Amino acid sequence: MKFTATLLTESHDATSVAKALSADNHGVEGLTVETSAKNGMVRSIVASDRLGTLVSSVDDLIRCQMVAEEAFSG
Question: Could you give the CA distance from residue 64 to residue 71 in angstroms, rounded to a whole number?
Answer without folding.
Answer: 11
